Amino acid sequence: MVSLWQIFGVFAKIGTFTIGGGYAMIPIIEDELKRRNWIDPEEIDDVVVLAQSAPGLLAVNMAIFSGYKIRGLKGSIAATVGAVLPSFIIILAIAMAFTSFKDNLIIQRIFQGIRPVAVALILVPAVNMAKKGNKKWWTWLLMFGTAFLVAFLKVSAIWILICVISISTIIMVEKERRHKDKC
Amino acid sequence: MLTLLLQLFYTFFIIGLFNFGGGGAMISLIQNQVVSVRGWLTETAFTDITAISQTTPGPIGINCATYVGYQVMHDAGFGNLAGIIGSATATFAIVLPSFLIFFLLMKLFDKFQHDPRFIGVMGVLKPAVAGLILAACIILTFRVDWAGMTPHIEIIAENFPDWKSWALFAAAFVSTYFFKANPIVVIIASGVLGVLLY
């Protein structure tokens, strides 16, 4: 049986050495799991698909799902703590250091250069998602409407998500019902 | 202090629960709740945190939550220990919904995964999430104030002080979007350019 420390160790290694968030971590997690034969290769694909459709953090979902397949609840906790702990320690150290160096002139200049770039890097996934998700005229309206409500009218993003999920669920359920009535 | 910790827990629990769609969506939700709704951080402080979260190892959402947890306690005048507790609270809270959903709803989820209704709802969510990320970009670029019915829009000077910053913005977008440049390399290069330009 795979020990909990081994599970923790593999995910801690992935968490320490992959920069670039969840999407960068997925292929590396897949690779490690396949190489160690901890999970049936066919099941790994299911884990990836499920991790992407469930809410929450992608990397954390991957850790929970694959940890569970290896050793149940304990396995999923070991994997999650492994994936999260390195980030936590590294960021905490940076946050502590940064609060004392923030007024340093060189640091200020570095961040003056970085800030517009950081905004541009958030725009990239927005455009990618817009291209993937917009198939009809009303999806464009939904996208720009959401952006307008949140950015200009300061509506909470959570309320928008709750509305979109409930309204679309009602529509989809109704559509399915009518479809079945016809058959 | 306890009130602030509970607010941190609640805020990040909600963020973890409602995140659909990866790191970019996560950043937009954290921005919305922490900057716009709670007013814990300024737009500029948050911009710095997103840059740091993308250049350090690990999931971006975890990096962001840990950093914001520390910063919020620090800005409220508490010491380092409280900052660490704030970090731990935010990080635990953002992870917890994933666990609850997995162990409570996974059976349901497994069943619905190929259901046309479920796929339909997910399809509608995508443009909404794209809109949320777009909103995060707008908020980190423009400050919008309302005087009655007339909006007053100005550029956030701390993030975009001059034409050089717009050039950096354009160069970063073109290189990562069209030429698939590595975002980490782009951020490091812009830091070096910052020292040279300012």
Write a concise synopsis of the structure shown.
The complex is a heterodimer of chains A (183) and B (198). Chain A is mainly alpha-helical and 183 residues long.
Helix fraction of chain B, binned, reads over 70%
Name the average pLDDT of chain A. 89
Q: Quote the distance from N terminus to C terminus of chain B.
A: 39 Å
Strand content of chain B: 5-15%
C-alpha termini separation of chain A: 51 Å
In words, what does this structure look like?
The complex is a heterodimer of chains A (183) and B (198). Chain A has 183 residues and is mainly alpha-helical. Chain A folds into two domains: 4-101, no CATH class; 134-182, no CATH class. Chain A has seven helices and no strands. In chain A, α2 packs antiparallel against α3 (41-53). Chain A is flat, with a radius of gyration of 21 Å. The mean pLDDT of chain A is 89. By secondary structure, chain B is mostly helical. Chain B folds into two domains: 2-148, no CATH class; 161-198, no CATH class. In chain B, 76% of the residues lie in helices and 6% in strands. Chain B contains eight helices and two strands; from the N terminus they run ααααααββαα. Chain B has helices at residues 2-17, 22-37, 43-55, 60-75, 80-112, 116-141, 163-178, 183-197; strands spanning 142-147, 150-155. In chain B, β1 (142-147) and β2 (150-155) form a beta hairpin. Chain B starts with a helix and ends with a helix. The chains are: A mainly alpha (183), B mainly alpha (198). Chains A and B meet through α1, α2, α3, α4 and α5 of A and α1, α2, α3, α4 and α5 of B.
